[in-house]
Fold this sequence. Notes:
This protein has 192 residues and is mostly helical.
Amino acid sequence: MKLRPGRFLTLLILPIALAACSAGGFGASRASNGLDAPGVDLGSDGADNLETGHRLVAAGQYELAIRSFNRAAIDRGTVDAEILSGLGTANLGLGRLGQAETLLRRALERDATQPEIWNNLGVVLMERGKNADATQIFRKAFALDNGESVSIRDNLRLALEKTENSGTPSASIDEYKLVRRGSADYLIRSGL
Length: 192
């Protein structure tokens, strides 16, 4: 049996047209399997740049964190202590100790009640070899925190040990913990 070209075209198009007329159209079987990408909520605000910056620091993405903290400052219209602290922490992660110290000190000028900022300044001072100054800073952080943060307590302990044993070289790798507002701790290892 030989099909005429018109009939062949009809037989080819008919199943496609019937599939399109079925409930849900062409994409019904895919959507029921959950394989489609989620939609975009065009009415929602973007991600919080400050929180994104903290997450980037935790992930070791310090350059991206600096950009995110800068965007947070633009969004807020001001550079507050938390943004300065975040910038200082990111610069510490990049090894820019002078910039980190300056930013953390500026953060303390704006809000000297945050033990996290004092702690992170203490880490910078330890990295710069200013052990006695760092010990005093860690004590201030410990006092402001009422001794509740394990990270701050550990940093104070390490600083005291290093100050007491300043004449003998340490064979162990010191691990200082940066702290941010909230639940996350950042770990800085010196001597690597």
